[in-house]
Amino acid sequence: MQSLEAELEQARALEVDALADAIESIGFECTRCGACCTGEAEDDHTATVFPDEVRDLQESTERDWRDVARPMPYGLADGEDGPEGETFEWALQTDGCGDCAFYEEDDDGVGACVAHDDRPLICRTYPFSVALAGTSQPMGEVVDSVALGAQRDNGETDEEGVVRAHECEGLGRDISRSDAEDLAAALKERAVRELEEAIGVRDSYDPTPVESGEVVVHDSEGAKQPDGTPIED
User: What's this model's pTM, rounded to 2 decimal places?
Assistant: First the structure.
């Protein structure tokens, strides 16, 4: 297994043109169906958001931290008064129906993001993701994929990674080259940012005593309370 630093160098070396080629070959056009913004059955909508993205959404929507993001639920235990324990990273906040708190539908049932211009990278790049070759990144559930490759001097091809497409009714539709390039640039940025964040979390992590009924969130900036307030040593 490669180090996170080695994975980060791979992510930084990704070529936007190659990513755009892969996206074009799969095809995509957003139909505004809202499936990627809403919860499913008993599972709430869960989308990772970086600390600086939370602050950007706070500023643009004039909402409190808790109204923008919630502790990532994975790893938390069910306490008497709700979730408790330590977790890593933040998820976009959800409403009472388990949908993203920024998703709204008009009278005709057409969905829209009320923070579209400031939406996080994970939202800007859905339904695509990148799995770097030989790394620890989980593949996840995919419906289509295209391998990336680099041509060597001897004519053979080294696999650099895979562009993955996840379930979405907009897949397979024509996409313009300019839109594919914009999406590819965001996809590369996300791959880099995810690894930078993972390294930051690893380097700043310090096990924190958690009282019954409390939640501590560890991100790249250190330990925080659910309202985003740093926990002092």
Answer: 0.91
In this structure, which long-range contacts are made by residues 18-21, counting pairs with CB atoms below 8 Å and at least 24 apart in sequence? 18/148, 18/160, 19/130, 19/148, 19/163, 19/184, 19/187, 19/188, 20/177, 20/180, 20/181, 20/183, 20/184, 21/146, 21/180
Q: Which residues pair with 104 in a beta bridge?
A: 112
For residue 129 the two structure tokens come to 């993701």
Which residue stretches of the chain are H helix? 4-12, 16-26, 51-61, 65-68, 121-125, 177-204
In sequence order, which ranges of 97-166 are alpha helices (DSSP H)? 121-125
CA distance 161 to 19: 10
Strand partners, 85: 215
**Spatial distance between the Cα atoms of 26 and 226, rounded to a whole number of angstroms:** 39
Task: Return the domain boundaries, the chain.
Answer: 4-126+169-224
* 83-134 pLDDT tens trace: 999 999 999 999 999 999 999 988 777 788 999 999 999 999 999 999 997 5
Q: How many whole angstroms separate alpha carbon 233 and alpha carbon 167? A: 43
